Amino acid sequence: MVWIPALVEVGLGIAALTPFMVHRLSVGKWRKQGIEYPVNDRKRPDVTVLLPVWNEQLIIEKKLDNLAQQNIRCSLLVIDSASTDETVSKINAWIQSHPKVFDNFSLLTMKQRLGKTEAVRQAIEEMEKNGFDGCICMTDADALLPPDALQRLQGWFVDPSVGAVGARARRHGSLSSERSHRTMFELLREGESARDSTPFLEGSCMMWKRTAFNSSQLNTQSNADDAQIATGVRLNGYRSLYDSNVHFEDMAPTTPEGQRRQKIRRGQGLQRLLMSHRKSWFDKRLGTFASILRREAHFHLIAPLLFFGAGMAAVIRWGIITIAGMPNGTLAAMHGSLACIELFCLTAWILNRQGIRVPLLETVGSVFSGMEHLMIGHWYSLRGKSLHMWEQHSDTRIALSESDLN
Fold first, then answer.
1. Considering 140, 273, 330, 400, which has the largest number of Cβ atoms within 10 A of its Cβ?
2. Residue 41, in any domain of the structure
3. Of 174, 175, 176, residue with least CA distance to 252
4. What is the three-class DSSP state of 169?
């Protein structure tokens, strides 16, 4: 009987991992193509910075100072999700002290907190009503940008095929598991962008054509508004690109539990996004992007279930051996081989969860931790628990306010 759960475990493991290896080889090949930054004499579009805030009194002045250092002229639209601290008063005081920094300034205040995605939707809708046809640069209050960030992103839009561009994260205080995850994330985004488009961008600093995405496309009962916009832009016929030459800086949650909570929330948002666009997985009109969506759907939706199934098969195999005793011959060799693989994977996963870096185990541990977070996201969705109303990581705000970043 031992061979049945063993074969199930091996089969599910292969089914889970094969698309990862295929996509890794693909993006490695695609990255070699590169993406050429457009250089021509076309007029660059106007830019409005969209800044969603909620209880950001510790860092809002630092954020506004940072935006004031940008070397292009732009407008600023702030939307406040019913802050209960001094965020709004500090914004108004700062604007009064710096009246000429932005071409135009608008402050929208929500009567109640409905989540960031709804705040973003209302802000985009306001720009649609006002007939704004330039580019929107969304940035988070806890993300600081170098002076040339907006100018670099703005330059992409002289290419009429480009609809959205996102920046690279430079995260301070992250654990080794976060750095490993970030390296993998950036590699995939670069390859997907070089070949066609990436469905995922970082909302801490991303820019898109206002006319390339409509506010009605946002699912306000889900998070990952940045990925919703990036994917929507591509489905609307434009390219969504990741630019590794422009970055933003922020602070990672200071504890493993905080980083874990952040990833679970993000994972659930991406799962919902991919499910909502399942009809596009096999849409031939999308070309390579359909296969990118299909593979990302496997990584975020199917692979966690396959890994979980493989784990359950391993538990059953060990249970049978505990009851019936160790098998002989070929079955014993098979069990021993699987036991070594399981020990390797379990060790990698535990070390990754603890933020301990071991080069050989780091990537494997990052994959298994990712599957853990996505499986929890599945479980929350099954229970009807949505994470779009997130709890703020106050430790990152304190760390940023006390840092010398500017």
1. 273
2. no
3. 174
4. strand
229 within some domain: yes
Domain limits for position 79: 47-255
Considering the domain boundaries, does residue 152 fall inside one? Answer: yes
The CA-to-CA distance between both ends of the chain, in Å, stands at 63
The CATH number of whichever domain residue 74 belongs to comes to 3.90.550.10
Tokens of 173: 């205080």
pLDDT surpasses 70 at 399: yes
Q: What tokens appear for 229 in the block? A: 């916009």
Find tokens 């002289």 and name the residue: 158
Q: In whole angstroms, give the CA distance from residue 76 to residue 186.
A: 29
What six digits make up the tokens of 93?
A: 């005081």
**pLDDT tens, 19-68?**
999 999 999 999 999 899 998 888 999 999 999 999 999 999 999 999 99
Please name the residues in contact with 381: beta carbons below 8 A apart, sequence gap of 6 or more: 268, 271, 272
Nearest to 201 by CA among 232, 174, 251, 240: 240
246-261 as b/e: b if 16+ CB within 10 A = bbbbbbbbbebebbbb
C-alpha to C-alpha distance for 48 and 403, rounded to whole angstroms: 27
pLDDT in tens, 129-165: 999 999 999 999 999 999 999 999 999 999 999 999 9
Q: What pLDDT does 190 receive?
A: 96
Question: Does residue 33 form part of some domain?
Answer: no
Give the span between the Cα atoms of 138 and 228, in whole angstroms: 13
Amino acid, single-letter form, for residue 209: K
Structure tokens at 120: 């973003």
CA atoms within 13 A on the CB side of 138: 28
Sign of CA dihedral 69, 66, 182, 30: negative
DSSP 256-286: HHHHHHHHHHHHHHHHHHHHHTGGGTT-GGG
Q: How many domains are there within the chain?
A: 1
53-109: pLDDT as tens digits = 999 999 999 999 999 999 999 999 999 999 999 999 999 999 999 999 999 999 999
pLDDT at 177: 64
Inter-axis angle of helices 225-235 and 256-276, to 10 degrees? 30
